[in-house]
Design a protein that fits this description.
Elements (H helix, E strand, L loop, with lengths): L2 H32 L4 E4 L4 E3 L3 H25 L7 H13 L2 E7 L2 E5 L8 H10 L6 E4 L8 E10 L5 E9 L1 H52 L14 H56 L6 H32 L8 E4 H13 L8 E6 L6 E4 L1 H17 L7 E8 L3 E8 L35 H11 L4 E6 L3 E9 L5 E2 L2 E2 L1
Parallel strand pairs: 9-11
Antiparallel strand pairs: 1-2, 3-4, 3-7, 5-6, 6-7, 8-10, 11-12, 12-14, 13-14, 15-16
Length: 507
């Protein structure tokens, strides 16, 4: 339930609940104050009311009204009955039992008055009824010390049989009703205030708690993040706006944690890279310094020795240049800042051309190079020619470092499936230990225990890491398989599906 809907329902409840509770309270108070029997007994927890208490009260009121209407009918239709003392006395006693009174005036003289209204000053009270709005019901204050209180007075004028004037006064005792109302109305007002206050208090408490609790949860989560504690998940488990905020907050925490982890990893990699660069550059620099010192100390006292020392200096400088170039290339790949120039190309023709180029490379002069393809010609993929050539060269140079057989061989294989092209480069070198195999594509990793360098030079430790970065940028995967003493196979895939290129990036 959304917060907006929850607030709307709370507003509706603030109106409907007090109305409902007020009606129930009014019913209960009405039974308490206007019930005929009030209570029949007591239970363990409170009063138990008569089921017919309220109906008995109103039945009594109706019976009184019916009797009064009958008396008025007699005054209009048969006024002589009002001169009959027996009839008048019986009627007066009946009305008295119904908390009412009867007064008959004949020619200005009170001929009968019920005992409950017969008191000193009755004539004055009746005169006030005569003076104010004749013939209509009104309130009459009874000032007699015996009665006191209020009556509802109704006057009916009639004529006796002897043409004498008569006046009938029907008085309804309001003391019981007013007495109950004097308690009923304050109790009803107090109950209404309590109901409204309690309803608003409870609804405000529950609604505010449903809003404040998630706010406190978010606050605690923010404080933990501020203190760098990112391992505590935020589980709101709500389906409202706070739930959406909690999900966004949790996603932010996860991303921040991942970002900090990457930053720490980058920092660790940077330290490792500096350490490896220092170590890798120190070896050729030491060789160059040794050669320069040999020339300065005239150890190379013949032209042949001097040419050898200069050649060694040139070789070491080339090694340093290659290592620095690979370092720059890997850094650009790692930071996603190296642009790719993708184009559609025939990978069969490309591999054939590359194998022929390798055969003319002096570094592979002693290596038997073979290209085998089981794929149809042409086999189109979308790739960056220069980057793909760098991949193949890095794999070939890595194989060259570990060739220790008298007949070194390097085989390029190409296979095709409906979705991708598989390129595999096999050698018959020393192979790589099974424990070291999963790490060969990590930066600066060298399988030292398996090294038997035919060329006498080690790699930079970035060659296969660069291979993985370039192939993954093409949308492919790379893997290594090896058997110690038999050889190593490096394979990678290139997707065949259609690509859309914009600014050198694959869509």
């Amino acid at each position: 339930m959304t917060i907006r809907l929850r607030l709307i329902l709370s507003y509706i409840a603030m109106v409907l609940i007090p109305i409902f509770l007020t009606l129930i309270t009014a019913l209960v108070l009405t039974r308490v104050f206007f019930g005929a029997g009030d209570t029949s007994g007591r239970g363990g927890d409170g009063f138990q009311f008569h089921g017919h208490a309220l109906s008995e009260f109103w039945e009594k009121i109706n019976e009184r009204e019916q009797l009064m209407n009958g008396v008025k009918f007699v005054a209009e239709q048969d006024p002589e009955l009002l001169a009959d003392p027996k009839f008048v006395a019986g009627t007066g006693e009946t009305l008295q039992g119904l908390q009412a009174g009867l007064v008959i005036v004949r020619n200005g003289v009170v001929t009968y008055a019920s005992s409950d209204v017969d008191h000193k000053g009755l004539e004055d009270e009746l005169a006030r009824v005569d003076t104010d709005q004749e013939g209509r019901s009104r309130w009459m204050m009874s000032r007699g010390p015996e009665i006191g209180g209020r009556y509802k007075a109704e006057r009916v004028d009639f004529v006796f049989g002897d043409q004498s004037t008569g006046t009938l006064y029907l008085l309804s005792d309001l003391n019981p009703l007013l007495g109950k109302m004097s308690w009923f109305m304050p109790m009803m007002f107090i109950s209404l205030l309590l109901i409204v206050a309690l309803t608003n208090l409870l609804l405000t408490f529950f609604v505010s708690r449903s809003i404040l609790r998630p706010l406190y949860t978010l606050k605690r989560a923010a404080e933990r993040i501020k203190e760098g504690q990112l391992d505590y998940p935020l589980l709101m488990q709500r389906k409202d706006e706070f739930g959406e905020v909690g999900e966004a907050f949790e996603e932010m925490r996860e991303r921040l944690k991942h970002s900090i982890h990457l930053q720490l990893q980058y920092e660790e990699n940077r330290k490792e890279m500096l350490s490896n660069i220092s170590h890798d550059l120190k070896t050729p620099i030491t060789g160059i310094k040794a050669c320069v010192e040999g020339l300065q100390d005239r150890v190379a006292d013949t032209e042949e020795k001097r040419d050898k020392y200069i050649a060694m200096i040139g070789q070491k400088a080339n090694d340093m240049d290659r290592m620095i170039e690979e370092l720059f290339l890997f850094s650009k790949l790692d930071l996603k800042r190296l642009p790719f120039d993708f184009e559609q190309m025939d990978v069969v023709g490309f591999l054939q051309s590359f194998s022929e180029e390798m055969k003319t490379d002096p570094r592979f002069a002693q290596v038997q190079i073979k290209f085998i393809s089981t794929a149809e010609h042409p086999l189109h993929v979308v790739a960056d020619r220069d980057k793909l050539k760098r991949v193949l060269m890095n794999i070939a140079e890595n194989s060259l470092h570990y060739m220790n057989k008298p007949d070194p061989r390097l085989t390029l294989e190409l296979e095709a499936s409906p979705r991708e092209a598989l390129v595999r480069i096999r050698d018959n070198g020393a192979g790589i230990d099974e424990a070291a195999l999963p790490k060969v594509f990590e930066r600066f990793y060298r399988a030292e225990s398996s090294r038997s360098s035919h060329s006498g030079r080690g790699g930079s430790g970035l060659g296969l890491a660069i291979v993985r970065q370039i192939i993954e940028a093409h949308g492919g995967i790379v893997r290594a398989d090896s058997q110690t003493g038999v050889g190593t196979s490096i394979s990678f895939t290139l997707p065949r599906q259609a690509y859309s290129r914009t600014d050198g990036e694959r869509k």
